[in-house]
Design brief:
45% of the residues lie in helices and 16% in strands. Helix 4 packs antiparallel against helix 5. It starts with 15 loop residues before the first helix and ends with a strand.
């Protein structure tokens, strides 16, 4: 132990590898935020500028299309900002679950209803043969987690996307909701990293889809609820996300 007048021991310098890793993460975050803020804003501004300048020369259908594009991109921007705020709240311990009795089937139907526009053109099937299952959990948080996985299934599923939802009791004794899509699946070496912040994968030859926050938020929510979420590839192709929760 050093005396009060003794010089403080110098702190060990941060390793070069830690500096590089932190810098890479910083650049990754900036790149994601920049892309996901600027891209929808550019579309919104561009659509509204055309609408304003050429209003008298546009047909009713063209006007509707321009407004539709602007509105869709506004929803996209709102979703991105919501994810950033949700992630900040979860990381700072500002979200506290409030448990209540929840009927799982009713919650899943509500999730599909909430994502009506997002799921337009997709086929969503909730297993009709599943047994009735009632649990004690925070319905708002679990709904958010399920919606985030459904949104991911639309982004990375086939065109058009087909989503199958099953639920029940897992062999572990926990409850489970499984959401399977008809996409190309997830590379085996990314089955765990897919839940890390700002991780996203290219969809074929198209641009990256999503903000890279949705599945990270889902994982944090499931931890709060005393459960977990797991990703795997289905036997017939596509990705399968399993949300486990206590009964």
């Amino acid at each position: 132990m050093t005396s009060r007048n003794s010089p403080a021991e110098p702190k060990a310098p941060m390793s070069f590898d830690a500096d590089v890793e932190r810098e890479q993460l910083h650049r990754q975050i900036l790149s994601s935020v920049s892309h996901d803020l600027k891209t929808p804003m550019a579309s919104i501004i561009g659509s509204l500028e055309i609408f304003q300048r050429m209003y008298d020369r546009l047909s009713i259908e063209q006007q509707k299309n321009l407004v539709g594009v602007a509105l869709q991109e506004a929803y996209r921007l709102d979703n991105f900002l919501t994810n950033i705020l949700d992630m900040a709240k979860l990381e700072n311990g500002l979200v506290k679950p409030r448990r209540e009795s929840v009927i799982v089937h009713a919650l899943l139907v509500d999730c599909v209803t909430r994502l009506g526009n997002r799921l337009k053109g997709s086929t969503v099937q909730i297993d009709p043969s599943a047994e009735a299952l009632t649990i004690s959990t925070d319905s708002t948080l679990l709904t958010r987690a399920v919606c985030l996985v459904l949104d991911n299934a639309v982004k990375y599923g086939g065109i058009p996307s087909t989503i199958n939802i099953t639920y029940g009791k897992a062999e572990s004794g926990q409850g489970v909701i499984r959401i399977a899509d008809n996409g190309v699946g997830i590379p085996d070496d990314h089955l765990t990293t897919v839940f890390e912040k700002y991780t996203r994968f290219a969809r074929g030859d198209q641009q990256n889809a999503g903000t890279g926050l949705g599945l990270a938020i889902c994982r944090e929510i499931m931890r709060l609820l005393g459960g977990t979420v797991k990703a795997e590839n289905g036997a017939q192709g596509g990705a399968v996300f399993s949300l486990y929760f206590p009964l």
